[in-house]
């Protein structure tokens, strides 16, 4: 495909940069000893919408006034989720990992890489929070430090972990919850409104795609999904400049919104090929035209 190709045809792209180096979550969990917090309060005002959505499905009726306690989580080698195929087109664990490669999330940890959990007295479940935005995790950490001053002496910090490893872990009595970037929730709701839908909220982590963007690897085509709408728009703008075409982002309906968790579920369980051509672009990254494919 060259710059004179029809504007309705999708463009072929490649990743413009390498993903950042991440902490291996599965390795961290192999010797995980968790902080269980018996109290959680909403943190920074920018997290309010995301946390409200998160805790609507995790709402312990009462909390203990005591400080943090400790609980040990079983070795991860014995607690991996079974990704074995349930139908002909379901993706393997390895295939899902490849699609998520380089995507970071941020968790709270101490100096020994022990991950912090939120726990209620009246439930046997604990909640592990994984933020897509580093600043959100940092705000959460500061809130925890204000609640428990002794944390300030424990080397508590925010660490980046590999999202691709999160879906291989199944820890007894622990639920992992993804906290989306509140800005992207607003972007998703705006795009949904432009498409004619009226939503009061967005359940899950929003991801953005355009039918005008296609990635090609080893003679296969993939649909890139972005965790930030701005990254998708940047890719579309760059493509339009490189190929002397109208920016597809200006065309109504060219940007679509999906729920990340639903895509992953479809990859694991679907008997159709709806999601087998999806790859995820890490936040802060975009795609650029691959000259070797412009033929």
From TrEMBL:
Record keyword Glycoprotein present: no
Pfam hit, one: Tic22
Gene Ontology cellular-component annotations: chloroplast
InterPro entries in the record: Tic22-like
Annotated keywords: Chloroplast, Plastid
GO biological process: protein transport
Main location: plastid
Subcellular location: Plastid, Chloroplast
Name listed for the protein in its UniProt record: Protein TIC 22-like, chloroplastic
Lineage: Eukaryota, Viridiplantae, Streptophyta, Embryophyta, Tracheophyta
Gene: LOC111288537
């Amino acid at each position: 495909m060259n710059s004179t190709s029809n504007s309705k045809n999708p463009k072929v792209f490649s990743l413009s940069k390498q993903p950042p180096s991440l902490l291996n979550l599965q390795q961290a969990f192999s010797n995980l000893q968790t902080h269980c917090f018996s109290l959680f309060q909403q943190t920074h005002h920018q997290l309010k919408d995301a946390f409200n959505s998160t805790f609507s499905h995790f709402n312990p009726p009462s909390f203990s006034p005591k400080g943090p306690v400790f609980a040990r989580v079983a070795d991860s080698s014995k607690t991996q989720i079974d990704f074995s195929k349930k139908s002909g087109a379901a993706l393997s664990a390895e295939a899902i990992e490849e699609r998520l490669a380089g995507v970071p999330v941020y968790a709270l940890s101490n100096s020994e890489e022990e991950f912090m959990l939120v726990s209620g007295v009246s439930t046997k479940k604990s909640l592990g929070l994984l933020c897509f935005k580093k600043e959100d995790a940092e705000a959460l950490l500061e809130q925890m430090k204000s609640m428990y001053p002794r944390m300030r002496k424990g080397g508590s910090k925010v660490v980046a972990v590999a999202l691709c490893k999160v879906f291989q872990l199944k820890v007894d009595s622990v639920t992992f919850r993804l906290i989306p970037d509140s800005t992207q929730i607003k972007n998703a709701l705006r795009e949904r409104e432009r498409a004619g839908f009226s939503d009061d909220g967005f359940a899950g982590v929003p991801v953005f795609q355009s039918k005008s963007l296609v990635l090609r690897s080893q003679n296969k085509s993939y649909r890139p999904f972005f965790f930030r709408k701005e990254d998708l728009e940047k890719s579309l703008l760059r493509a339009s400049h490189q190929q002397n075409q109208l920016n597809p982002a200006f065309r109504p309906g060219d940007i679509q919104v999906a729920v990340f968790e639903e895509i992953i579920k479809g990859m694991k369980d679907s008997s159709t090929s709806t999601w087998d051509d999806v790859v995820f672009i890490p936040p802060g990254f975009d795609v650029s035209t691959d000259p070797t494919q412009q033929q």
